[in-house]
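hi! just following up on the protien thing from before. the input was this:
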Amino acid sequence: MLWSIEDLKGKKVGEIVSSDIRTADVFKDFGIDFCCRGERLLGEVCKVKGIELKSILQSLEEAMRDTKGPVHDYQNWSVSFLIDFINNTHHPYVRSSLPILLQYGEKVYNAHGSAHEETFEVLQILQYFEDELLKHLKLEEEVDFIILKKLIQDNSSSSKTLVTQSKKILQNLQDDHVAVGDKMLRLERITNNFIPPADACNTFKVFYKKLSEFRDDLFNHIHLENNILFQKISNYIQSNY
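and the predicted 3d structure came back as:
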């Protein structure tokens, strides 16, 4: 589905990516947050950032014509399947990646910290992710996602309690995502969007490449929750209660 400029102005950024995940890379290239703040209208975002709508429309249309690789149809997945996918794909990636990133971060800071003071803040942000993001994943798996699954599966009147719990869960998880997303955006700024400095050694270069890959997965992960999973649950609540 291709849009006109008028159509595009009134669409939410997250809604566009939800309709076709291939558009995510376009927003990343234009520096537009489609996951944590995907509820903003594209026309408003472009006005604030000084981006020409015609330019981004052309890029979006090119991305949507790209036939390379599979494109998951997340919108047609059930809530239960989406949750299982997140638990089995994105959560293990975060857990396996953070220890490696911290090792690289410590090496780079120890070797280059005197010349590149930003490496200390990079390390601090990674430690924040290790503390806060891992707790967030654990809470999702052991409490929040279980309740959200139960809400969808339980059609009895007693599930009104689940509705109240689920609304609170959605808000808390979205608040967490904003905090994590802000940290990642800060990481982008202080690393010049993960471009290694001219005097970077091979370890420094590999570190920034891995950080960039972690950023991409994290933003897709948060988008999948905020703009697809949580929206499905919100729609279910509105339709049934």
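The chain has two domains: 5-65, 77-240.
The CA atoms of residues 170 and 230 lie 7 Å apart.
cheers
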